[in-house]
What does this fold into?
Amino acid sequence: MASAAEKLAANMNLGAFAKATDLKKRIWFTLGALIVYRLGTWIPMPGVNPQVLADLFRQHGGGILGMFDMLSGGALQRMTIFALNIMPYISASIIMQLMESVLPSMEALKKEGEAGRKKINQQTRYLTVVIAALQAYGIAAGLLGMNGVHGPAVIMQNQWLFRFTTVVTLVGGTMFLMWLGEQITARGIGQGTSLIIMAGIIAQMPHAVIATLELGRTGALPATVIVGLIIGVVAMVTIMVYVERAMRKVIVQYPKRQQGNKMFGGESSHLPLKLNTSGVIPPIFASSILLMPMTVAQFAANGGPEWLSTLTAYLGQGSPLYLSIYGGLIVFFSFFYTAVVFNPTETADNLKKYGGFIPGIRPGKNTSDYLDFVLTRLTAVGAIYLTVLCVVPQFAIAKWSLPFYFSGTSLLIVVTVTMDTVSQIQSHLLAHQYEGLIKKSRLRGRRG
It folds into this structure.
């Protein structure tokens, strides 16, 4: 019976999908935009010697450069127009959200509704240009000061012309990706920024699998480690799916009220509080803040002062200092982003306004304190889950020089974004089914 019901539901979903023209257009638009993004990761930046970069990544690809190259979908290793990817925009969003929590003027702008949100988005774009320009100039300066085994890293003779073209190219690539992500969110399916990052990770995963199997074939990686890696990846994905769906349901009761001869209300609902409210944001935020400055420092370390080389050595992949900072940033952003997206005081006021209350808790401040207490405990567990998931695999990656695409961060991004995108597709299908039922009921009413 259960299998028959599942088959019937699947057939209904397939039938609804075949009729959902708007949904199909959104999916095709999303796929087309991601194809454009992947093509851009192969367009090289002018004036760079690819042989020197290949030699650099052979020597230092297991460190900070490899981690950032994973988030850029391989664009950094090839030094293409999308080498910065969308990370400057994420960094700008972090700064703007911090300012919204600190500056009263930004908080007031946030409360203006859609008009205020548009102003904040515009300021975020301006800040993205500034951050991308600074990072692009740092990369240009690092490439100019770097000499590889096969010759100079920069082919272009005029150094200032190279700096100018690098800044213009990389900033233009970042702004295009920012615009592309916004278009995916508005006209496609899923969250555009997250999908761009996920597409880069998935595109590089086959190469990572082949590289890992090659290490096993040559004997550099024991077979037991490869088997353990497969088991570990399956276990991590299972844990991610389970935890990302876990939530605490806070019961909300609405009192009965009488209007005329009829009674309304009296029903109970629930307020869903996810165990990991912040989702994939903390690892991405932590990576964007930690990796980009260190990438620039590692580029410049070869021709820079001795203290810069020492700093990159201490912050090497798998080092205690790097893991401590990375874990600390994940915990911080778990609490910070949860505080941004969920306001207990505002939620308690809304419940009181519409007559809702939590059984055993008085409306108003007591409800706010209770929600804050529950959310703090959930966030603490979620922060520990994210930290363990993202930090522990770094030890194995550092010890056996495994590709970064098997790290907790990359798997978490892929699993979370996939689940979110599938949920949005299901929501569109459900809305389409409701529209069909409403149209049928109207036609029957007219015939009657």
Q: What stands out?
A: The chain is about 75% helix and 5% strand. Residues 13-447 form a domain with the Preprotein translocase SecY subunit fold (CATH 1.10.3370.10). The beta strands are 147-148, 151-152, 247-253, 256-259, 262-265, 268-274. The radius of gyration is 25 Å.
